[in-house]
């Protein structure tokens, strides 16, 4: 029977798993140091390289419950076996069984980004401002657009209501974006670990959010009504 060495999860890895639990309540972790998740409707995908190396592949049906179980202990140790993990701290131990992988929603391929049409950097503070404004204004849409001078902006609003309240931030970009575009997202899909992000967008298809301080990426689908005219 294959058994891994005992490990402790770093705070960064715990935070990533907590974030992933907001994208999908279940997860399958392959052997190695890469963890990934995909939303049930497959419009959000993420992959992270972590400091831990897992010697056993395992599936967790209820990730929030698993993370809650870890919180029972102070600084728990995890020993991964073939069908279960032992969670312990001293003499206290919990035996937590894995899920059948067939029951889980897991990524089955990597995304290769198409040609990039729009790129910019957005800070953690700006992301928090946008989410706070959306909550206060009671709106659910986020749009990246340009103006007649080729300058780039990001807006939270209700795209179905031309008279809706909105909050707009200018975005720093070295490029001049001519043409006309409005690239739409649902704010609820921006489920990101805190941090500054490099954002690359392939119009009408998919976006890639790359954390600038840790090795984690998200691919988030654009809404179908996005418009891009070069």
Quick structural gist:
This protein has helices spanning 11-23, 63-70, 124-137; strands spanning 27-29, 32-38, 44-54, 58-60, 77-80, 84-89, 92-97, 118-122, 141-146, 152-157, 167-171, 180-186, 197-202, 206-211, 216-221, 227-229. The protein has 230 residues and is α+β, with helices and mostly antiparallel strands. The strands form four sheets. Strands 2-3-15-14-13-8 form a six-stranded antiparallel beta sheet. A five-stranded antiparallel beta sheet has the order 11-10-9-12-16.
Written account of the structure:
There is one protein chain. By secondary structure, this protein is an alpha+beta fold. It has 2 domains: 11-103, Box (Proliferating Cell Nuclear Antigen); 118-229, Proliferating Cell Nuclear Antigen. It has helices at residues 11-23, 63-70, 124-137; strands at 27-29, 32-38, 44-54, 58-60, 77-80, 84-89, 92-97, 118-122, 141-146, 152-157, 167-171, 180-186, 197-202, 206-211, 216-221, 227-229. It has a 6-stranded antiparallel beta sheet. The chain has a 5-stranded antiparallel beta sheet with strand order 11-10-9-12-16. Strand 2 (32-38) and strand 3 form a beta hairpin. The longest helix has 14 residues, at 124-137. The chain is elongated and about 65 Å long. The N and C termini lie far apart (58 Å). The mean pLDDT is 93.
Features of the shown structure:
single chain, 230 residues, alpha+beta, Proliferating Cell Nuclear Antigen, 6-stranded antiparallel sheet, 5-stranded antiparallel sheet, 3 helices, elongated
CATH fold naming of the largest domain: Proliferating Cell Nuclear Antigen
| Alpha-beta classification | alpha+beta
Number of domains: 2
First-to-last CA distance: 58 Å
Strand order of the largest sheet: 2-3-15-14-13-8
CATH class of the largest domain: Alpha Beta
Number of helical regions: 3
Weakly predicted, low-confidence segments: none
Mean pLDDT level: 93
Q: Main sheet, how many strands, which sense, barrel?
A: 6 strands, antiparallel
Q: What is the strand tally?
A: 16
């Amino acid at each position: 029977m294959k058994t891994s060495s005992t490990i402790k999860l770093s705070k960064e890895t715990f935070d990533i798993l907590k974030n992933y639990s907001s994208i999908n309540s279940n997860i399958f972790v392959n052997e190695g140091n890469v963890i990934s998740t995909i939303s049930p409707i497959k419009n959000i995908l993420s992959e992270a390289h972590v400091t831990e190396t897992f010697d056993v592949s395992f599936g967790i049906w209820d990730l929030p419950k698993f993370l809650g179980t870890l919180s029972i202990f102070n600084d728990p140790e995890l020993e991964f076996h073939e069908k279960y993990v032992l969670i312990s701290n001293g003499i206290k131990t919990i035996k937590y069984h894995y899920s059948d992988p067939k029951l889980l929603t897991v990524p089955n391929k990597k995304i290769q980004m198409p040609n990039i049409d729009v790129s910019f950097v957005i800070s953690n503070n700006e992301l928090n401002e946008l989410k706070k404004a959306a909550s206060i204004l009671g709106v659910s849409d986020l749009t990246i657009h340009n103006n007649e001078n080729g300058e780039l902006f990001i807006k939270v609003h209700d795209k179905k209501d031309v008279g809706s309240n909105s909050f707009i931030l200018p975005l720093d970009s070295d490029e001049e974006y001519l043409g006309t575009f409005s690239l739409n997202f649902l704010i609820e899909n921006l489920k990101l670990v805190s941090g500054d992000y490099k954002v690359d967008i392939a119009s009408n298809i998919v976006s890639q959010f790359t954390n600038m301080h840790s090795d984690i990426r998200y691919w988030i689908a654009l809404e179908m009504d996005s418009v891009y005219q070069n």
